[in-house]
Specification:
The complex is a heterodimer of chains A (about 650) and B (about 475). Helix content of chain A is about 75%, strand content about 5%. With about 650 residues, chain A is mainly α. In chain A, the strands form two sheets. A two-stranded antiparallel sheet of chain A has the order 1-2. A two-stranded antiparallel sheet of chain A has the order 3-4. In chain B, about 75% of the residues lie in helices and about 0% in strands. In chain B, a hairpin with a 2-residue loop joins strand 3 and strand 4 (about 350-355). In chain B, the strands form two sheets. Chain B has a two-stranded antiparallel sheet. A two-stranded antiparallel ribbon of chain B has the order 3-4. With about 475 residues, chain B is mainly α. Classes of the chains: A mainly alpha (about 650), B mainly alpha (about 475). The interface of A and B includes residues 607, 629, 631, 632 and 635 of A.
Chain lengths: ~650, ~475
């Protein structure tokens, strides 16, 4: 009952709010959705604390109802609760609840508040469905559900063309990933004859190294399945090559960015791979590929973030980069570390987003950092929040990121393969860039001479309580979630906590090795980060003309980074424009000219023409009629005479 | 045959009864004048009803009057259908003729006389009796077409119909005399017997058949003998048009069937070629020409040309199944037409009849009952399942496909698609165009009940099609030995 309430309270709230919003009014809808999610969040915390302190592994599977039962395809709609699910419950519901309350202030003047809150709750429900599934189809349902809500919320301000474009972009790029994901699920059913986790994971070991013939290629079954699943994860978690939608998704309202595009939905890919660890463990090729992708993403996104001027885009690329870290850990079989980072990241990244939302709110919806500056006296609480978030992100000791992010870097070092070595260097360099762009953001936004226009400046105001209190609560999470949970989640006895929700093959576990590393290596990421902070200070406080000089001196590199490695341009050139051309061609030439022209249009024009001529035959003159009759008779008779 | 024998009159009782009643009512009318029109009309309806009872209950499978008059299941089926058409046409025109100042006592009597002619047509078993029956119905119809003789249009219609009808009668007679000349007999069964033994028919016979078929095609208004139809339909007063489009079509089609299936049954391959051409041309021209019509009566003229094409499609199958399908088709077509003409007769704005299709616009709002039935009838005429019209088309196509007439069927399906356009356009006009004029509500109970019967038949035919199908089966099997 407890678990059912956690999952279904947001769903019921969304349903009520969606159906009856006109009757109930904005205020009630906002209140009921926020309250439901908050209750759900409190219950999740209760379960989480119980799990930690009782030292008993929770492993329950509640069947709601039978969903499909057709031949071999048989599964139920159910709620499976284990440690991994509970951790996700906490992340999803707590961030969601805080974002709901935050939105009270942030969306105050929006005329479509009720719709906004409905979507938020619906999203929460879909995300909870996703994490509590016990089979791949329900997972896919949640997966698509969050995708849909993401689409709806990115395009929430539907009057903005850029928001609509961003929503469609997010949807379409995710389609690419989902295509792989769906194929993966079908492949699982094809080989395992089942889609429930239990059956599939139990059989996984039997398929190790087995091959099948496809297009005269001998492919490893598990590698193919896991690669397909990972393509889905790449789309959802905005990994390198399928990342382009995430920065654009910032067109949505900032609370949405905090909830969906930082804390929860984008981490669904990480969650899914971790959930399927029993499959991935037997597919070493895929794991290597994941590590490689994660490393490239971590570095790539951080490199782009250092030159972006839009405050939300900086944080978006930062999210992308941090997701790369998580995948590095996943690829190295350090699932607990990945989830731990997911857990801490949810708090500090949501905090950063909400704080940036507070800034944007204060300066009349301006997002360009070049038009900010000097705000720290005016927005002291927000300023403090950004500091806490950035300290956590940069991995400064005591703050949560220090425990999770540095652990991943250490794990990468502890790994013995060349891929993990590569990942280590990439992660380390990305850590330096992370610190740099975070403080660049702080300095450009809050320090120096203000570049805000006078008319806007007069309106600048600190966030109302409804916005600041959620931020403060998140800040607590950003500070303490690491230090409190590090022992439980990734300590020496972490397997007691995770139970059998994670699966690591014997001999692949790197966490112990990471714990045993030399102190100098443990402190290395911190030093690197502090160097990044100092450099940012040097560039943006001490000698503010240096960035310009460097940018001018390295114009091509600067433009390369500013244009996000030209990915959008490349995709436009390689994919979007050709498809658009093809679509246009098929529409104009193929459909309108050929099919319509010869088919419906041509046919109807022809009929019309013939009809006109036939109508002319009907002259009204008697002798014409008689002539036609006689002609008919003559025709028939001569037909018989001649044939 | 001995001439001093008293012939058996009983099988001809319905016809004898009708002719006596006609004379009596005529005399009655002469004395009572036009005021008695209403009474005479109801008496005609009553006696038509009684006649149909005589038909059903009377003896069958009899050939009398020196083998020129036959009563079998086929003729009974056709006669009942003809009487239904006549009763419906008369009942729906009662209030119309009063409003239009056409209240003359000859009107119902002419309809009855014409009906009598039709009944003799379908019972004909000899070229001579065929011609007598045909002329009786035609002459009455010529007069009816010109009934409102003080209007130009009506007299023009009557004249055209008469002249062209005379031409077709001439062709019929010419064909009949060729047949007689080459076979030495006018009796259907004797002619049939001549072609049983695979004799190669002489050219004279074939030319005779062509002429007779052409005359029949004129009566059912099939292309290229259809030219009179639109002008006569439009020019005649609407109540006459309603009658023209129902009973005479059934009678002519029944006669057509009997002619090609009894005397010329041994020559199926020969006449089939002609009927196929006529059928294809009728379907195509019927649907194409209707598209551009603005007058609802002209539209219905082309619609009937197209529908006759579909009926001939079944006829051209040359099998018993084909005959069955034509009978079913005619039955369904007649019932649909009843409803359509009730609606057309209700198109009255401020006391004036209107005939343009655009006058129907907004009917969906102004008179939902009329509009919904009319809409259903249009869908049915277009042949959209699950309405009755679909089954009519379905059976004729089935018969044609079973006989291997694939190309003809493809032509039929394509014309049906084209034809759907103008039926659906009417639905669109009724429901989606802005209302213009509001029709006066049809207040006569007979019209409303006829409309309801037509609508109910069309909608619910799918529920119980079996009685009609088995009846048609009996009728068809009675003429094919």
């Amino acid at each position: 009952m407890l678990y059912i309430s956690i999952v279904f309270l947001p769903g019921l709230a969304a349903l009520t709010a969606g159906v009856f919003s006109r009757i109930l009014g904005h205020g009630f809808v906002m209140f009921i959705t926020s309250l439901s999610v908050s209750i759900s969040s409190i219950l999740s915390f209760y379960v989480f604390l119980k799990l930690i302190f009782s030292h008993k592994i929770i492993n329950e599977n509640i069947t709601i109802l039978e969903w499909i039962n057709s031949g071999d395809l048989s599964f139920s709609w159910s709620i499976m609760v284990d440690t991994l699910t509970i951790v996700m419950f906490v992340v999803v519901t707590s961030v969601s609840a805080l974002v709901h309350w935050y939105s009270f202030g942030y969306m105050k003047k929006d005329p479509h508040k009720a719709r906004f809150f409905t979507y938020l709750s619906l999203f929460t429900f879909a995300m909870l469905m996703l994490v509590s599934s016990d089979n791949f189809v329900q997972l896919f349902f949640g997966w698509e559900g969050v995708g849909l809500c993401s689409y709806l919320l990115i395009g929430f301000w539907f009057k903005k063309p850029s928001a609509n474009a961003a929503a469609i972009k997010a949807f379409i790029v995710n389609r690419v990933g989902d295509f792989g994901f769906a194929l993966g699920i079908m492949a699982i059913f094809l080989f395992f004859n089942s889609v429930t986790y239990e059956n599939v994971f139990n059989q996984a070991v039997n398929f190790e190294g087995k091959k099948f013939l496809f297009l005269s290629m001998n492919l490893d079954i598990l590698t193919v399945i896991t690669m397909l699943l990972f393509i889905g994860a790449m789309g959802k978690s905005a990994q390198f090559l399928l990342h382009t939608w995430l920065p654009d998704a910032m067109e949505g309202p900032t609370p949405v960015s905090a909830l969906i595009h930082a804390a929860t939905m984008v981490t669904a890919g990480v969650f899914m791979v971790v959930r399927c660890s029993p499959l991935f463990e037997y597919a070493p090729f895929t794991l290597n590929f994941i590590t490689l992708t994660g490393a490239i993403t971590a570095f790539f996104a951080a490199s782009v973030a250092i030159v972006q001027n839009d405050i939300k885009r900086v944080i978006a690329y930062s999210t992308c980069s941090q997701l790369g870290y998580m995948f590095i850990a996943v690829g190295l079989s350090a699932y607990s570390a990945a989830i731990f980072h997911l857990f801490t990241h949810a708090f500090f990244k949501a905090l950063l987003f909400l704080a940036s939302g507070s800034v944007i709110h204060a300066v009349s919806d301006e997002q360009d950092m070049r038009k900010m500056g000097g705000l720290y006296t005016l927005l002291p609480i927000t300023y403090l929040m950004v500091w806490i978030g950035s300290l956590a992100l940069a991995g400064i000791p005591i703050f949560s990121g220090f425990f999770s992010k540095d652990l991943i870097i250490e794990i990468a070092y502890a790994g013995s393969s060349s891929i993990s070595n590569f990942a280590f260097w990439m992660a380390l360099f990305a850590a330096f860039l992370t610190a740099f762009y975070s403080w660049r953001l702080i300095f450009m936004t809050f320090h120096g001479k203000t570049r805000i226009e006078k008319s806007v400046m007069s309106h600048v105001h600190e966030a109302p309580f409804s916005m600041s209190i959620p931020m403060i609560l998140l800040a607590m999470g950003a500070i303490f979630s690491g230090i409190l949970c590090v022992g439980v989640m990734t300590g020496h006895h972490n397997s007691e906590f995770w139970g059998n929700s994670l699966f690591v093959l014997a001999g692949r576990d790197l966490i112990e090795a990471a714990h045993d590393l030399h102190f100098s290596l443990k402190i290395l990421p911190v030093i690197i980060s502090i160097l990044g902070i100092l450099l940012a200070w040097y560039f943006y406080i001490y000698k503010i003309n240096i960035p310009k000089i460097i940018a001018n001196a390295n114009q091509p590199l600067y433009l390369f980074l500013l244009n996000k490695w030209y990915f959008d341009e490349m995709y436009n050139y390689l994919i979007v424009n050709p498809s658009r051309w093809l679509g246009y061609f098929l529409w104009k030439k193929g459909d309108e000219t050929v099919i319509d022209g010869i088919g419906p249009d041509g046919f109807s024009a022809m009929i019309n023409g013939i009809s006109k001529k036939i109508a002319l035959l009907q002259s009204g003159l008697l002798y014409h009629y008689a002539f036609v009759m006689l002609a008919g008779v003559v025709l028939f008779v001569s037909w018989f005479l001649l044939v | 045959m001995q001439y001093n024998d008293v012939p058996n009159f009983l099988p001809a009782l319905p016809e004898i009864f009708m002719s006596v009643i006609c004379m009596v009512l005529l005399i009655f009318g002469v004395f009572k004048g036009n005021k008695s029109t209403y009474l005479i009309s109801w008496l005609v309806i009553l006696s038509l009803f009684l006649t149909s009872l005589f038909c059903i209950l009377g003896p069958k499978d009899e050939i009398i009057f020196s083998n020129i008059f036959i009563v079998d299941d086929f003729s009974i089926f056709s006669k009942v259908l003809i009487i239904i058409g006549a009763i419906a046409a008369l009942a729906m025109s009662l209030s119309y003729i009063r409003n239009e100042g056409m209240e003359k006592f000859e009107y119902p009597i002419l309809i009855m006389l014409s009906t009598l002619g039709m009944m003799m047509m379908v019972s004909a078993n000899d070229l001579i009796s065929l011609y007598v029956g045909l002329e009786l119905q035609s002459l009455a119809l010529y007069v009816l077409a010109a009934f409102k003789r003080d209007t130009l249009k009506s007299s023009e219609a009557g004249l055209k119909y008469f002249v062209l009808g005379a031409l077709s009668s001439g062709m019929l007679l010419y064909g009949a005399s060729l047949i007689y000349g080459f076979s030495g007999t006018t009796n259907f069964e004797t002619i049939q017997a001549m072609f049983d033994s695979n004799n190669e028919p002489s050219l004279g016979i074939i030319v005779g058949i062509v002429f007779i078929i052409s005359a029949m095609a004129f009566k059912v208004s099939a292309v290229p003998f259809h030219m009179w139809t639109p002008d006569v339909y439009e020019g005649s007063t609407t109540s006459v048009t309603a009658f023209l489009s129902m009973a005479p079509k059934v009678a002519a089609m029944a006669l057509f069937i009997r002619l090609v299936y009894v005397p010329f049954y041994g020559l199926v391959p020969e006449w089939q070629q002609v009927v196929i051409l006529i059928s294809a041309a009728s379907m195509v021209i019927g649907s194409l020409a209707a598209i551009r019509q603005t007058n609802i009566k002209r539209l219905m003229a082309y619609s009937s040309i197209g529908h006759m094409g579909f009926a001939l499609l079944g006829l051209s199958a040359g099998t018993q199944q084909g005959v069955e399908s034509v009978l079913i088709y005619m039955f369904i077509y007649l019932f649909m037409n009843i409803g359509v003409f009730v609606v057309i007769l209700s198109m009255r704005v401020n006391g004036v009849m209107v005939e343009n299709i655009n006058d129907l616009s907004g009917l969906g709002k102004n008179n939902p009952f009329l509009a919904i039935i009319f809409g259903i009838l249009m869908f049915s005429l277009a042949g959209i399942p699950p309405l009755a019209g679909f089954f009519g088309k379905f059976y004729v196509f089935l018969a044609a496909v079973d006989s291997g007439l694939y190309i003809l069927c493809v032509i039929g399906v394509i014309s049906s698609v084209i034809g759907a356009f103008y039926y659906l356009r009417i639905v669109k006009i009724m429901y989606f165009d802005d209302p213009v004029d509001i029709f006066e509500k049809p207040n006569s109970a007979s019209m409303i009940s006829l409309l309801s019967i037509s609508g109910i038949f069309t909608i619910f035919f799918i529920v119980a099609p079996t009685p009609l199908i088995s009846w048609a089966h009996h009728a068809a099997s009675s003429i094919i030995q």
